[in-house]
From TrEMBL:
Superkingdom: Bacteria
InterPro entries hit by this protein: IrrE_HExxH
Domain IrrE N-terminal-like stretches: 36-148
Name under which the protein is recorded: IrrE N-terminal-like domain-containing protein
Species assigned in the record: Thalassobacillus cyri
Lineage, opening ranks: Bacteria, Bacillati, Bacillota, Bacilli, Bacillales
Length: 165
């Protein structure tokens, strides 16, 4: 399997464009403090649930200090999505809208932790791919599995589309 049948989503393209415009080219460039600073967001670590808060112009992502670094990293990108793509207080919005934002944050996390322009250089047939992604992007093996499955599903859809037409 390779990326030739893979079609990126508009969210995926938006994230990769943002990174490329700011010269984030390699997994090691995805430094949380640098990304937060580019969005004028402070990062703090406290022993309670990770969340994003905005007070006027002050923006803060609080990461649960009791979590390991990999989980904190994944929480950071989830909260970053709320910071850059969502408005309003989730506690004040209808359940369906809250669920929509959470689904968006889930996909944002997949794409922002492992952006297409960085993963496309990897060999998808490599038996060690998931371990390499987990190490290079500093994310959980499970998140890497989810990303690879998403790539396979979308590639299969593209193949099916072209086989029908």
């Amino acid at each position: 399997m390779n990326f030739s049948q893979y079609t990126t989503s508009s969210l995926e393209d938006w994230i990769s464009s943002w990174y490329i415009d700011r010269n984030f080219q390699y997994p090691g460039d995805l430094n949380l403090r640098v990304i937060a600073k580019r969005h004028n967001i402070f990062i703090n670590y406290k022993p309670f649930e990770s969340h994003f808060t905005k007070f006027g112009k002050y923006k803060e992502i609080v990461l649960n200090s009791n979590l390991n670094k990999v989980t904190q990293r994944e929480h950071f990108f989830h909260e970053l999505c709320h910071a850059v793509r969502h408005v309003g207080k989730q506690t004040m919005m209808p359940k369906a809208f809250r669920e929509l934002q959470e689904r968006d944050a889930k996909y944002f996390t997949l794409y922002a932790t492992m952006p297409y322009h960085m993963i496309k250089i990897y060999n998808l047939n490599d038996q060690e791919l998931l371990l390499k992604w987990a190490e290079d992007f500093e994310v959980s093996y499970e998140l890497c599995e989810e990303r690879l499955e998403q790539i396979k599903r979308r590639s299969d859809c593209t193949k099916l589309f072209y086989s029908i037409n």
